[in-house]
Design a protein that fits this description.
The protein is an alpha+beta fold and 938 residues long. Helix content is 38%, strand content 17%. Strands 1-16-17-15-18-14-13 form a 7-stranded mixed beta sheet, with helices on both faces. Strand 13 and strand 14 form a beta hairpin.
Length: 938
């Protein structure tokens, strides 16, 4: 679990490309120094002079397995507490010193550890070291903060577990079914009952037991001077005392499983049944860890993986498949499972999964499969090392699971050494039939009459009596001041080169890294606005089908021929554009781009492939229709853009997808997928000369059809504001959204617009999150987004909360929108929110995929590439008056629509007092193709 979650990720169609196995040294080693202070604190540091940033991370050897009995979720709850006050820092100071200077912070709780991490401009390093020493040595643990963060965690539980169709399965049922004795069986996020039972004494005792220097590791990676760092570490951390008491450690041992078991789980709003199988496995330090990791990749990594190829592609039994080799600090588990396709039974899913497991035991994997798996794993490690925080995480994870930071580098050679015999051996050793636990997950309505609920009741345990020291916030005049900010490090911006080929294809190349990675992104200037009437999702399906077979390669051949390249290739469509994206190592780029060009230019659109993709999409919709956040998102376009080419769901609906034919896809591709309607961007470890030559080689003979490229559609929103409640009975939360049409990307008010959004909801410290989460604990997170497209845009403010709090959260969103237009932002607030934008933009530029996306977006919207260099100055130039004017002109809540998806009986009556025009749509009657959002009465 994270302290706060990132934005939801879009679903993409992913496959991996192949060739001979990569050498283990393809990913350069992480060069680091290590020392241990007299108080036991371990310090790791790695210098990188190519970045203007630095990451500071502290990893504590305490995780969910260390939760006290009757207090599951405690380590995670305490993770939240660590962001509040210390003796010398008032609450929220950590956010002021990270997010407000252009960085970010977060934390996560695993079974074995809790880690806290920040990325900031390098000149703030000394300050962040002081911050982390304050958190370790003088945290304030008080009643009000404890209660507030407990409420936030309860909302996180509702959002991540109780409001998701398969949240209970993965967070609750899988661990409790897989372990009988070891505390890995308890849910890391806890339960409402156990969180409510906790007291401030429990929290203080937990802090005293585990948050100590000899249970921590400080990791610093980025642009700094080593001698200076060592001096600062000594200054701020060496004086923190090591407690005399020995460390508490989990000693429970999970007994071997000697016979197969079955666990039956049920949940509300489960559209498709699921089956999961688990086996006990060794720990992360085991000699078998590498072989099990490769086995896991063979099972489920990529479209030529065994589970996908068999269960999803060939048999079409499953809508989704997955596996995992979870090898933590103490013995873990291997998992394989599937969410079944519509109409398929649990028995069919079990049989298909068992067949693949038996196949691993009974015969060696092929050399091709072995090479593909290794390449995917090694390439993944390389992508992890593209960022400074990724490198720090690799060190910390190896240290806290295997007890050996050097494993972060050694792991590559260990993976490369795995043989087919090793994979078969570990399959026989760990995946035996007599040690299998099978978890069957179904809707609550499928529970047989009289079948008891297997959910265990939380144990009732008395609170701990804490008698140790208690830290309080020092009076303002007695607080130690933070260290000064150092001299800024000037970032080096990429210098893109652009050229238009003879066929009209615009090519942009920017060398941005010496790390051996290259991104190639082909953007087509056509998106959902071009969907034919009644065929919502047509362009999206066209783009998604590109990787499902060409005129010379079947879908399976695309996957099987290419996976050893260790690349990722994806395709998909959005509102304004469609794309094919590739990420690969430079020496494999020519071969990978040949496949990329083939899928973009020569798709076959075979009927059987369309049938497969359509079935998967419909199954995906059935799952999404049980998630309040996704439901509210689906309704936004029909509500805001009704009557325009954007007035439908871009990914398609349950009504439109069955209507799309292969002829429709071929016609859309022939019309819009042409070189003079496309942009190719290459970034990373590649020179302009190399990039232009490769573009000519792969796409130079792509002929444009006769006549000019089709005109792009202009969208002018005209719908009146509405209030809609989508009733999803039994769901754990309500998703509250305020939406309205906004400005296009080329509007002169764009920069005032993004600054205004940053003030309102563009980060943890923005106003919405301050009011809804931090002050009131009503949500795990509240945010807003301004999406500027070619001729229009979309503004969305959103938060999820317990159902009965939906009207209150709506009031808070409306109040903040009104305040933006009435009261100018202070100079301090404006500076902080601008820094958030500038810092985020800089971090995006630092990755090959991020830079490719930025350059491609500028070209898509006909903006000069010089905007990359001008961005910071234009953001800095925005005034408080411009923010106020933008809010007044564009974000008037009286002109916005409201969409709330959740269990309507808990909020409908009160919501109607705010919006008498409220329309209530039962999810069973929802029709996203209808202006009314309701199915027609027959």
């Amino acid at each position: 679990m994270l302290r706060h979650a990132a934005a939801a990720l879009a679903v993409t169609f992913v496959l991996t490309l192949g060739a001979p196995a990569l050498a283990a040294d393809t990913a350069p080693p992480i060069v680091y120094q290590e020392r241990t202070l007299p108080n036991g604190l371990r310090v790791f540091s790695s210098v990188d002079r190519t970045t203007p940033n630095v990451t500071v991370q502290v990893w504590y050897g305490v995780g969910s397995k260390d939760d006290p009995v009757g207090r599951s979720g405690f380590a995670h709850l305490f993770e939240h507490m660590m962001f509040k006050a210390t003796r010398d820092m008032p609450s929220e100071t950590i956010d002021r010193m990270t997010e407000d200077v252009g960085g970010f912070n977060n934390a996560s709780t695993y079974d074995d550890f809790t880690n806290y991490y920040e990325v900031v401009p390098a000149n703030h390093l000394q300050r962040l070291l002081w911050v982390e020493s304050q958190r370790l040595g003088s945290l304030v643990v008080d009643e009000s903060t404890f209660k507030s963060e407990r409420d936030v965690v309860k909302e996180e539980l509702r959002q991540s577990v109780l409001s998701q169709p398969y949240g209970r399965l993965f967070y609750l049922d899988v661990p409790r079914a897989s372990y009988t004795t070891h505390p890995y069986k308890r849910p890391g996020i806890g339960s409402i009952e156990e969180l409510d039972a906790a007291t401030i004494d429990d929290v203080r005792a937990f802090h005293a037991a585990y948050y100590r220097p000899d249970n921590a590791a400080l990791i610093v990676v980025g642009n700094f001077d080593q001698k200076e760092l060592d001096a600062w570490v000594d200054k701020y951390f060496a004086g923190i005392k090591r407690p005399a008491e020995p460390m508490k450690r989990v000693t429970a041992v999970e007994p071997p499983r000697t016979q197969p078991g079955v666990y039956k789980g049920y949940g509300p709003n489960v559209p498709l049944p699921a089956v999961v199988m688990t086996w006990h496995a060794p720990d992360a330090a085991s000699p078998d860890a590498a072989a099990l990791t490769v086995l896991d990749a063979i099972l489920s990594s990529g479209k030529s993986s065994r589970l996908y190829d068999s269960l999803v592609y060939e048999q079409q039994i499953a809508a989704e498949v997955y596996s995992d080799a979870s090898l933590p600090q103490q013995p873990g588990m291997v998992m394989a499972g599937a969410i079944l396709a519509s109409g398929k039974t649990l028995a069919e899913g079990e049989k298909a999964l068992l067949a693949q497991v038996a196949r691993l035991r009974d015969e060696p994997v092929t050399e091709a499969e072995l090479a593909e798996a290794k390449n995917e794993l090694i390439a993944s490690k390389l992508r992890e090392r593209e960022t400074i925080d990724g490198r720090a995480f690799a060190i910390g994870y190896a240290l806290n699971t295997a007890g050996d930071p050097a494993l972060a580098n050694r792991q590559l050679s260990e993976l490369q050494a795995v043989t087919a015999a090793d994979v078969q051996r570990v399959a026989q050793k760990y995946l035996a039939d007599n040690s299998r636990m099978t978890i069957l997950y179904q809707p609550e309505s499928a529970r047989p009459a009289g079948e008891p609920d297997q959910t265990p009741k939380p144990p009732v345990v008395a609170s701990t009596k804490y008698t140790g020291p208690v830290v309080t916030l020092a009076p303002a005049g007695q607080r130690a001041a933070p260290p000064p900010v150092g001299t800024p490090v000037t970032p080096v911006l990429p210098r893109p080169t652009e050229k238009t080929l003879a066929n009209g294809l615009k090519v942009i190349v920017a060398k941005s890294s010496d790390l051996p990675l290259v991104s190639a992104e082909l953007t087509v200037r056509t998106g959902a606005a071009a969907d034919p009437q009644g065929l919502a999702g047509g362009v999206g399906m066209t783009a998604g089908m590109l990787t499902e077979g060409t005129k010379t390669r079947s879908a399976q051949q695309i996957a099987s021929q290419s996976e050893a390249l260790g690349a990722t290739l994806s395709s998909g469509g959005g509102q304004d554009s469609s794309s094919v994206s590739l990420n690969v190592m430079p020496d494999k780029l020519p071969a990978a781009m040949a496949i990329m060009a083939d899928v973009a230019r020569n798709p076959a659109f075979a009927q059987e492939e369309l049938d497969r993709q359509r079935a998967q999409a419909l199954d995906g919709l059935s799952v999404a229709f049980q998630s309040p956040g996704q439901l509210a998102g689906f309704a936004a376009s029909p509500v805001i853009f009704s009557g325009t080419p954007f007035g439908h769901v871009a990914t398609g609906t349950q009504t439109s997808l069955p209507k799309i034919s292969t002829g429709d896809l071929a016609a859309l591709h022939a019309t819009y997928f042409r070189p003079d309607n496309a942009i190719l961007v290459l970034t990373g470890d590649i020179t302009p000369e190399q990039g232009l030559a490769l573009a000519e080689q792969a796409f130079g003979d792509w002929k444009a059809p006769a006549g000019p490229a089709p005109a792009r559609v202009a969208v002018t929103p005209q719908a009146k504001p509405r209030a809609v409640a989508i009733d999803l009975p039994g769901t754990g939360q309500a998703a509250v959204t305020v939406v309205k049409a906004a400005i296009p990307r080329g509007d002169p008010a764009y920069y005032p617009g993004i600054v205004t959004n940053s003030v309102l909801g563009g980060g943890y410290s923005a106003r919405l999150n301050q009011e809804i989460r931090i002050k009131r604990g009503l949500s795990y997170g509240a945010n807003s987004r301004l999406s500027a497209m070619r001729t229009t845009g979309l503004f969305r403010a959103a938060a999820q909360t317990k159902n009965e709090s939906a009207p209150q959260v709506l009031d808070l969103i409306v109040a903040e929108l009104s305040r933006l237009a009435q009261t100018p932002a202070s100079a301090e607030e404006l500076k902080a929110r601008k820094s958030v934008l500038i810092g985020s933009f800089g971090r995006e530029l630092a990755t090959t995929d991020g830079l490719a996306g930025i350059l491609g977006s500028l070209a898509l919207y006909d903006l000069p590439l010089t905007e990359v260099g001008a961005y910071t100055g234009k953001v800095e130039a925005v005034t408080a008056g411009q923010v106020r004017a933008f809010a007044k002109q564009n974000l008037d809540p009286a002109k916005a629509s409201v969409i709330v998806a959740g269990d309507a009986k808990a909020f409908q009556a009160e919501l109607k007092t705010r919006r008498p025009d409220l329309e209530v749509v039962p999810v069973s009657e929802l029709d996203l193709d209808s202006v009314t959002l309701k199915k027609a009465v027959k």
